[in-house]
Every structure is written in C-alpha cells, then in structure tokens.
Specification:
The complex is a heterodimer.
Chain A: H1 3-15, H2 18-21, H3 35-45, E1 49-54, E2 57-63, H4 64-73, E3 91-92, H5 97-107, E4 111-115, E5 122-127, H6 128-158, E6 167-174, H7 183-194, H8 199-219, E7 222-229, E8 233-240, H9 248-251, H10 261-265, H11 273-280, E9 283-288, E10 294-301, H12 307-316
Parallel strand pairs in A: 3-4
Antiparallel strand pairs in A: 1-2, 4-5, 6-7, 7-8, 8-10, 9-10
Helix pairs in contact in A: 1-5, 7-8, 8-11
Chain B: H1 3-10, E1 13-14, E2 31-34, H2 38-42, E3 49-53, H3 58-66, E4 71-74, H4 82-90, E5 94-97, H5 102-111
Parallel strand pairs in B: 2-3, 3-4, 4-5
Antiparallel strand pairs in B: 1-5
Helix pairs in contact in B: 3-4
The chains are: A alpha+beta, B alpha/beta.
C-alpha cells in the first residue's frame, strides 16, 4: 500500500470516533443467565462473545472461549457470572478510533465494550470488523468528495490544448518580514485546494512552501518562491541571493540551526526546516554555496489515483 | 470530545466572536499537541486536533492551518493578534484563550484522556538531496 494511503488511514483513525463506528444494538446477557444457554445465545446472534450487564452497567464479558473452557472442565451448569471475565478493558464512546485499534492490538481482544463518558453506561461494542467497516465507509465518502472537487481541476487542464501545460504561481518573500511568514504557504494551499488537488498533496506542498518561506525570511534579504502546478506534479522552487549555505549536509541535519535566539523566540529556526521539506518531497535538490545564494527545488507527485482510477469510478457510476 | 468540554477543562474563553455549531462548542477534538515551534506544528496531522501554544502571531495560525488543525488554544491568557483571529475565522479554525500555563493545560487534558496528535510519517519518497 502506498505511504499516502497509510497516512490517510492513520488520519481517519484519529478523525473518526468510537461511537461513529461501534455497534449500538448490543446483545447482552444477565449475570444470572445459565452457561448451558450461552451457546444458543451466541449462535443465534452470530457473535463470539458478549457483555454481561446488570441494571445497565457492565459487570463482565463472556466469550466462546469461556464457554469452551467450561465444557472442557466438565463442570456443572452455573450462572454466567461464575465464568465471565470480570476485569474488562473498556473504551469511551468519544475516544478516537485509534485508541480502540491500540487496545485491541495490545491485548489481543476480539471486542471492546463501549461506555458512555460520564454515565459509564454500556452504549455499544466495537470489534475489528466495525473498525474496518467504519474506515471503508469514510474512505468512500472522502473519495466521492475528492471526485467532486477533482472534476473542476481536470476541467482546467483538459481545456488546454498543448503538448505540455502548467500553472505557474509566484510568491515574493521579503527578508525579516516575520509578520508575513506562512502567508504564501496558506495562499498556496487555498489555491491548490480550489484547483481540486488532493488535500494531502496540497498540504505537503504548503508545508514545503512554509518552511522555504521561513528560511528566506530568517536568513536572506528576500527571495522568490515559484510553484508550477502540472497534471503530474507540483514543482516548487525557492531562490535567493542571500549568504548561501556553507555546509549543506550539516544544514540537512534535523535540529542543526544557525538562527539567532530572537528568531527562535518567534517559533522559527528550530533546525527542522530543510528536514521537514525533505519529508514532504518526492524529489528535492538544494544548490548553494557561501556567498552565492541558494536554490531549492522540490517536486511533489500528484496522487497515484490518476486518470485510470477516476475513469473506472466513472464507468461504474 | 466536544470543544466545549475542552473549553471547560481549560477554563478557557472563546477568542473573538463566539463561533457556533461545528466551528465552536460542537466541534469534535480527538487529540492535542503543544508547541511553540512552527516546524513542530507543520509535521503533524492536525485533523481533529487542538494546538496549545504560547505564540500569538498570525504565523502560528497559518502553520496550524497548513496542518489542518481544528482549533488553537493560546496559553497564559495571551490574546492573539488581529490578523491571526481573522485568518482563523476565514479558515474555520476555533480559537480559545486560557489563563493556565502550557504545562497545566497539557496535564489537565492528558489526565482526561486526550491523546497526542500524530506526526505524519513517510509522506514523500525523497531519498536524496544535493
């Protein structure tokens, strides 16, 4: 799976809440229910475990494994309360999905009972199946929204008859102009989103632009950021006639910075600019020498979901 | 967690005109990050997240916007600059101001189960730079 998609799923796992994907209609059993009846309850509802509830409060969990163990032990029939797990790991309905994933992974559970924040009442159950279904549904919604946006950008490029087409955006940055830092980057992000560029791609370009802009402001008298938006990629170029970088390898080290303390107090100059840019880029090139200015080139490829996937989606629709 | 609940935990006030609905009290916030460094803010995925910061400049709201943060809370009672408020309004980012310190704000939210925001990993395929 491409990194982009992993990132997207990670994001969704933080965005979605447990209550949005959990099963709300939960089959429960009372502590007094007999073990001999459990098999039929699990079978009839096609579940492998269920919360044990008394007066709306969770008192334990009982699963098919507990049932099998009871059979294997050859013990006489007894209430579920006698064989259930009493120390239950739970999750709150307002927690992000990622917490549920972590807890299921860590303890190897098949399901987690979901409690309402505050009241601590049982309001649902979440399983790995619920999580996968929730993510798939969300991906589908996001994809349709991206499709709707994409229609516009495709239009822009499709109407141009040329062997090669690109949209060029230029941002001028003044040295020491901290008040405007990031203004070009936010402008770029808005423009890219309006063009229907995928949000992840737009964000990566904006991060690179923000860091490049900050570098021009902190270290030079000013410079220029040129962004070329083509159907296949976004190319960003930042140039200046400033002091240059004497040791590029050192400048690329995370945390290495030559920024003065007052710049750091403004939240800049943490030595993460170039490493951040590299992280966002699919290609990066940095040319500089002391006293000769600096030229930074960054290329970010458009989503791999190119025309073919869009076309197939349209064919289905 | 609803932003209104976070606002109560931090004893915070809305910044600027009180936003309503999805831009305000009803906004869902699932994680939090605290930093005074732009580069830190930029490497995070701010989707559904709150940013706690001591900086009040427009730059920090711009960084939050680039990283898709849902809300920003300024600590130690510092009010943001006008341009920052205007930008936040335009981009639908909720702004709060708390009198608590950064440390106490983080502690209170963490104690209530708010998890940290995630760093976005492996975005580009860039291996080389010259």
């Amino acid at each position: 799976m491409p990194d982009e998609q992993v990132t997207k799923i990670q994001e969704m796992a933080y965005e979605l809440l447990v209550r949005e994907v959990m099963t709300k209609e939960v089959i429960t059993v009372a502590p007094e229910a007999r073990m001999s009846d459990l098999r039929e309850i699990l079978r009839a509802n096609r579940i492998s475990g269920t919360p044990v509830v008394q007066d709306g409060r969770l008192v334990g969990m009982i699963s098919i494994e507990d049932f099998i163990r009871w059979l294997a032990d050859g013990r006489p029939d007894c209430p579920v309360a006698g064989r259930m797990t009493r120390e239950v790991t739970t999750i709150h309905d307002d927690e992000p999905l990622v917490q549920a994933v972590n807890r299921l992974e860590r303890w190897g559970f098949g399901r987690l009972p979901v409690l309402q924040r505050g009241g601590e009442r049982l309001v649902g159950v979440i399983t790995k199946g619920d999580i996968v279904r929730g993510l798939l549904k969300k991906m589908d919604v996001d994809y349709r929204q991206a499709e709707a946006r994409g229609a516009r950008s495709r239009h822009v490029f499709n109407d141009i008859v040329a062997d090669r087409s690109a949209l060029v955006l230029e941002y001028h940055v003044r040295g020491s102009d901290f008040a405007r830092a990031g203004a070009g980057a936010t402008g770029l992000k808005t423009t890219l989103r309006r063009l229907g560029i995928h949000p992840q791609t737009a964000r990566r370009a904006a991060i690179a632009a923000y860091e490049a802009e900050s570098n021009l402001i902190v270290f030079t008298e000013g410079g220029r950021i040129t962004v070329q938006v083509a159907p296949q990629s976004i190319r960003l170029e930042a140039t200046d006639d400033g002091p240059g970088i004497p040791d590029i390898e050192q400048a690329m080290q995370p945390g290495f910075s030559t920024a003065p303390p007052w710049v750091r107090e403004l939240g800049f100059g943490a030595g993460m600019g170039l490493p951040n840019i590299k992280k966002c880029a699919d290609r990066m090139r940095l040319d500089s020498a002391a006293g000769k200015g600096t030229r930074l080139e960054v290329e970010i490829f458009m989503e791999p979901q190119g025309e073919s996937q869009r076309d197939s989606a349209e064919a289905v629709a | 967690m609803r932003l209104e609940e976070i606002r109560n935990i931090l004893g915070a006030e809305w910044c600027g005109p009180r936003p309503n609905g999805a831009d305000g009290a009803d906004r869902e916030v699932g994680s939090c990050h605290a930093s005074d460094l732009m580069s830190d803010v930029l490497v995070l995925s701010g989707v559904g997240s709150l940013l706690l910061t001591g900086l009040t400049s427009a730059q920090v709201v711009r960084a939050a916007e680039v990283s898709d943060f849902a809300a920003v809370c300024f600590v130690r009672g510092k009010k943001p600059q006008r341009e920052a408020v205007e930008l936040a309004e335009d981009r639908h980012i909720s702004l709060l101001v708390t009198h608590l310190s950064m440390f106490e704000s983080c502690g209170r939210l963490y104690a209530r189960g708010v998890p940290p925001a995630v760093a976005v990993q492996g975005e580009g395929n860039c291996r080389t730079s010259k």
